[in-house]
Specification:
This protein is of the alpha/beta class. It is built from ten helices and ten strands. The termini are far apart.
Length: 301
């Protein structure tokens, strides 16, 4: 049966060898000299060989045996490996290293996460982050398939995703987006029925209208565009109008206007999505806590 070597005993051995004495090693270890002697004796018993020559009464120096000289570099290697592993695990537990994977809907990805992530990794330069930007359905699927540690998406029907939990963080109001020269652009707010006489373009967020008075708009949409870049291009070209959450509305776009939809008032709840009964990694847990502590409603003006 192989001996089980204790790191503390290996450190004592190295200190005695390097400092040339048990007294100096005891001071280094903040132990008594008899305690260091017992530690070395126990290590020798485990190895089955003496590590130090019998001490000469005329000298306090500790001299290594041939076996001890052979064992010294290996003991140092074992200590170094132990310390590297201990340090790596400590850094991982403190979310300062490792690999974190998350997914988010585009509106949060572009509005909130750049500032949040830049502050989060300020004290964790060795933490690697893989980030995926996609629609809510794709984010939920990545969470379900465990391709990411957690996701950031809108709330869902609980009966459709009973294996997940949702932590709400932001509220996002839905409005109408059109060209700045569109007849609706001058209105301060709109009623859903006033949209029927205009060409409608639905998109991935149009599902938010389901179950509201404005649900009828979904059936009257002439176009459906899934990609946000393409959708914005269509709107800029004056092809039609669409409904979007305010966070998804492109800021500083001189060609487009956002008008709040007040009848009905439709609110999208955004937050953290993770699997039930599955623990997050230390880095992911720390990021979720950081988001909850530091999140605020972004400036949408």
């Amino acid at each position: 049966m192989l001996p089980e070597l204790k790191i503390a005993q290996l450190r004592h051995f190295v200190w005695v060898a390097e400092l040339k004495g048990f007294h100096a090693a005891a001071e280094r270890a903040h132990r008594t000299q008899p305690a260091i002697s017992l530690s070395i004796k126990d290590l020798e018993n485990k190895l089955g060989e003496a590590l130090f020559e019998k001490r000469n009464a005329k000298s306090s120096n500790a001299e290594l045996t041939p076996f001890g000289r052979h064992f010294l570099p290996q003991a140092k290697e074992l200590i170094a490996h132990h310390d590297r592993v201990a340090q790596d695990m400590t850094l991982m537990a403190e979310h300062k290293t490792g690999h974190l994977r998350l997914a988010s809907v585009p509106s949060v990805a572009s509005r909130m996460l750049p500032d949040i992530l830049s502050r989060f990794i300020a004290d964790a330069p060795d933490l690697h982050i893989s980030f995926f930007d996609d629609n809510a359905a794709a984010v939920l699927n990545m969470v379900e398939q465990q391709q990411v540690d957690f996701g950031i998406a809108s709330a869902w029907r609980s009966d459709e995703h009973s294996d997940k939990t949702f932590i709400p963080i932001w509220q996002d109001h839905v409005g109408v987006v059109c060209r700045h020269d569109h007849p609706l652009a001058e209105q301060a707010e709109v009623h859903w029925q006033s949209l029927n006489k205009h060409r409608l373009i639905s998109n991935g967020t149009s599902r938010l209208l389901e179950g509201t008075d404005a649900e009828a708009l979904l059936g009257s949409s002439q176009f459906y565009v899934s990609n946000m870049i393409s959708l914005i291009a269509m709107l800029e070209a004056g092809l039609g109008i669409t409904t979007l959450p305010r966070f998804a509305f492109p800021r500083d776009n001189p060609l487009l206007t956002f008008i709040p939809l007040t009848t009905p008032e439709v609110v999208r709840h955004l937050g953290v999505v993770k699997l039930i009964n599955k623990s997050l990694s230390p880095a992911a847990e720390a990021l979720v806590a950081f988001i909850l502590k530091n999140s605020s409603i972004p400036d949408t003006t």
